[in-house]
Amino acid sequence: MYDTDYFVAMNLALTNEPNALCVIQRTLDMESGKAQYHVVHLERFALGTSYQAMAAHAQRLIATEPLSGRARIIVDQSRVGAAVLEHFEQVTHRRTHAVHITTEAIAGYANGYLTAPLNDLIGRFQMLQGEDRIAIAEKLELAAELKREMNNFRYRQPSADLDIYEALRAGTCTDLVMALLLGLWTIEVYMPFR
């Protein structure tokens, strides 16, 4: 059993929209027996960055210490197709854990990817935040921006004519916080300590 491991969570949208990457370090608190999550790296890709460039960047990142040989990649598959995920796996030489965020009520597995109910992502995030189990490295250039997104994060139930991402954004940028939510939910639900 590892007492520390790493996850690279990527919020992928269209290339002309903000896309972000969040590296989460998970440690086991021996006293409580619960995982603690530390955001140790944050990036926002420049608008127009290709998925190929993002995959190559993820590969370079996971080849560095302490991630080398220990990091797992989690990608938001909700707005990108299977070809993008296949490319990520080819470039990174790692299985990419694809997650499709939905408005459905139940989490599951379909068509090669996990389905994550948005309400579950938000609920899990709020629980971890309330238990003070999320820490953000202050030295990160985007730490203040992530904290601002966390504080301003709002969700309104999408109607038939409002897609899930418009409901999330509600006029503000949420790429960093969505990468964090996606990573935390996937780790907590599908990747327990062994």
Task: Please characterize this protein's 3D structure.
The chain has 194 residues and is an alpha/beta fold. The chain has six helices and eight strands. It has helices at 51-62, 82-92, 118-130, 143-152, 164-169, 175-190; strands at residues 4-11, 19-28, 35-45, 71-76, 96-102, 108-110, 113-117, 134-136. An eight-stranded mixed β-sheet has the order 6-7-5-4-1-2-3-8, with helices on both faces. Helix 3 (118-130) packs across helix 6. The longest helix is centred in the C-terminal third of the chain and has 16 residues, at 175-190. The radius of gyration is 16 Å and the shape is globular. The chain starts with a strand and ends with a helix.
* Biggest sheet strand line-up: 6-7-5-4-1-2-3-8
Following the backbone from N to C, one meets helices and strands in this order, namely EEEHEHEEEHEHHH
- Low-pLDDT runs of 5+ residues are none
Coarse structural class:
alpha/beta
Q: For the residues shown, what is the average pLDDT?
A: 85
Query: How many strands, which pairing sense, and closed or not: the largest β-sheet?
Result: 8 strands, mixed
- Tell me how many strands there are: 8
Number of helix segments? 6
Amino- and carboxy-terminal Cα gap: 5 Å
Shape type: globular
Strand content: 25-35%
Radius of gyration over all CA atoms, rounded: 16 Å
Helicity, as a percent range? 25-40%
List keywords for this structure.
alpha/beta, globular
Topology of helices and strands:
Layout lengths: L3 E8 L7 E10 L6 E11 L5 H12 L8 E6 L5 H11 L3 E7 L5 E3 L2 E5 H13 L3 E3 L6 H10 L11 H6 L5 H16 L4
Parallel strand pairs: 1-4, 3-8, 4-5, 5-7
Antiparallel strand pairs: 1-2, 2-3, 6-7
